[in-house]
Amino acid sequence: MADYTNLEKIRLEKAQQLKELGVDPYPRRVKRTHTIQKASDAFLAIEDDQEAEPVQAVLTGRIRSVRPMGKITFAHIEDGTGRIQLFFRADDIGEDQVSFFDDHYDLGDFIQASGKVFRTRSGEISLRISEYTMLAKAITPLPAAKDEVVDGEVVQHATLTDPETRYRQRYADLAVNPDVREVFRTRTKTIRAIQHFMDSKDFLEVETPVLQPIYGGAAAQPFITHHNQLKQDLYLRISFELYLKRLLVGGFERVYEIGRDFRNEGVSFKHNPEFTQMEFYWAYADYQDVMGLTEELFAFVVEEVMGAKSFTYKGQEISLDQPWQRVDLREGIIDTTGIDIHKYKTATGLAKAMKSLEMEFNPKAARGKLIENILDHYLEPTFIQPTFVYDYPREISPLAKTKEGDPNTVERFEGFMGGVELCNAFTEINDPVDQEERFLEMGRSYSEGEDEHHPLDEDYLRAMRYGMPPNGGFGMGVDRLVMLLADKHTIREVLLFPHLRETEK
Fold it and tell me: Which residue would you say has higher pLDDT here, 322 or 100?
């Protein structure tokens, strides 16, 4: 049984009073002739026509403000298209109906209101009420309130600013913060733009299994579940990669997928255990080809979503109207730290060289992991404008082809923007013998108990043995891209329901 607050008890009593008066506070049917936006547009279209019939409308929405003034009450309601003022006047509906609204309706309630659209003396488009009815009584008041002066009167509006409450009660956050709703419209626009671009390039959008018997395609710790009937452990996927590349074997030359991946790893401003990724695989392409397509993709998405070829993130303008900067990983590390990673063939030697650096790292980590630590600490934050870092250590790239003449380096790049890594791409291995050796090598590279490793997938190797065309692959964190476009500085701001620790009971 809910433990109601005093305010909630008062609202429950109001709901009961409505029932006793024969008014259903949660009716089964709604009558709406216009959205608020359409009603406003219809009024503006005839406002200057003296002979036009007035716009009569039945509107619905949530009550966002109320200002009683004796025989007149002003209120604002909001629907998914906008906000409009309601004008309750005793001369129109009687004093008892104005008083009934004042006594029984609260901020947050949903109302159906009928009347004529007009403009008040102060110039605001409004609905002159002829009838109204309750659509849904809100029992819990919307969070907090702030005062706003309207026409010399103090009006209360709901607001919500505490991040913890906002993330835990996203429904309330969305209800009272229009800018938050706009973030998620931006998210949808971003995904639609990605799809539009990929479709225009003749890529086929597909779906691959979320529950997998063997996880793979990335170095990450999976979530494990169990299928009771099959008596089989399964893994929530950490990547789409190995299934998408199976499709290249089957004859599809360009495939992509947008969906959820799951990694049982730490939470940070750019990490959530459940996240949205876009991956594509492109037959007969290499990582240089993928770089070019990546530049096109991001330029298209930014212009489609933002209406321009640039946007502002953390106060800095980021431009997509130029080729991306290209930085060789080895040279970038030399320039920022003075360490030449090619001189240190073992993790022990590299760890010793890193002791002089002002950063924390695990001295027992694998060599490739240490190099990643340097990249993350020294290089990534400096890449504000779009940048490709290319040619990575073999040890941390189990699915990428080695560079010709350099068996310790692979054809791989990562894309950065706003100081955040956004994408990762390879020239993919299509030699099944090489791939099997790499899986086995990766199994030995990490000590027992290491969170990240890559299991050997026999079925994937079987698929490769049928023949896989040369190909380039790409993966992008959609959430991180939305963070940048919406100018938000934590991934939680762009996830409708981010994962949080349980609260103490």
Answer: 100
DSSP state, residue 356:
T
Fold for 6-159, please state it. Answer: OB fold (Dihydrolipoamide Acetyltransferase, E2P) (2.40.50)
Q: For residue 398, what pLDDT is reported?
A: 87
Give the burial string for 181-200 (b: 16+ CB within 10 Å, else e). Answer: eebbebbebbbebbeebbee
CA distance readout (Å), 272 to 173, 237, 493: 20, 14, 11
pLDDT band of residue 147 (cuts 50, 70, 90) is very low
Q: Are strands 471-477 and 420-427 parallel, antiparallel or unpaired?
A: antiparallel
Q: Where in the chain is the domain with CATH 3.30.930.10?
A: 180-324+385-494
Give the DSSP per-residue string, 118-146: EE-TTS-EEEEEEEEEEEE--SSPPS--E
Lowest mean pLDDT segment, chosen from 44-58, 117-131, 135-149, 159-173: 135-149
Cross-strand pairs, 111: 61, 134
**Lowest mean pLDDT across 180-184, 290-294, 449-453, 469-473:** 449-453
Residues of the chain with CATH 2.40.50.140: 6-159
Which residues, in sequence order, are CB contacts of 78 under 8 Å at separation 6+? 36, 61, 62, 64
Residue 148, pLDDT > 90, answer no
The helix/strand/coil state of 286 is: coil
Residue 140: how many other CB atoms lie within 10 Å: 14
Q: What is the CATH number of domain 180-324+385-494?
A: 3.30.930.10
